[in-house]
TrEMBL record:
Keywords: Leucine-rich repeat, Repeat. SUPFAM superfamilies: L domain-like. The keyword Repeat applies. Pfam families: LRR_4 (PF12799), LRR_8 (PF13855). This is Leucine-rich repeat domain-containing protein. Gene3D superfamilies: Ribonuclease Inhibitor. PROSITE patterns: LRR. InterPro entries: Leu-rich_rpt (IPR001611), Leu-rich_rpt_4 (IPR025875), LRR_dom_sf (IPR032675), SDS22/Internalin_LRR (IPR050836). Transmembrane segments: none annotated. It comes from Hexamita inflata.
Amino acid sequence: MTRKYLHKIKKGGIRINHLKILGSLKFLQNSGINTLSISNCPNLSFDLISDTIKKLEIYECPAQISQIQNLVQLQELQLSHTKLQNISGLKCLTNITVLDLFNNRIQDISVLRFLNCITDLTLSYNLIRNLNPLYNKHTLRHLQLSCNRITDITVLSSLCNLEEIELQYNKIVHVLALANLKHLKQLDISDNHISRQNMLPLQSNPKFNQLTDDKFHTQITRQQLPHQSEILSAHKQRNIYITTLFRTGVLKKQNKIKNKFSKVQALIQTRIQDTVHAQIAMTSQVISSFSLW
């Protein structure tokens, strides 16, 4: 894609996807583009320079932070399914408010110490153990850390403005750090290693008692209803998967999703309580709508 072509693009955004023949993308300065979305371009290499791009989405393309670190006005960045390992180059992108690094190979998040404007951070499906770089990130409102290798969440107690946290599928044992988060509206700590005793700091807090079942998922719920554990476990796993599909804007394996839900739907008729029935029925409606796409 040449500079001459890009100069003809009016102010706004450009979307590039499923182009196996596209080899390189460079020189976006003065192009007037403020949004750029690139997906499913496996052979693409790029070196972007722009003082106008504020939103960049890269999905299932080879990418390195060094290729985008000159986008000085960038505010929203999504780099998902890119096999990314090193994110130290983000240090230069100090205006970022929304950062989505879903499904990569990231272990070290030390660079986040330098990003002081982030409100929404997605790091799910990575290899993260240490959350200390998040200390005192008071701007954070939404934090997604599911499917990592996290054991210690003590640092989260310093994130006083958090409204939503997803921590499912980690190795967390203690949750005391979450007990005094006054602005929390949604919490998912299911599928961790939390005992009944260690759940007491949350259960005794009236703030958490006000959260509805669909906003407060815990391991304890399934322990209290052992005869329904299969239903609840299946429901939670599908719910997480569907949320991921919607968030990334990518829908795959429709038949696989429907097959997984068929078992849940059969069990609903005889074994599920009214509250759980309502949740799965709602999710089933979403899945059935996929067949119309």
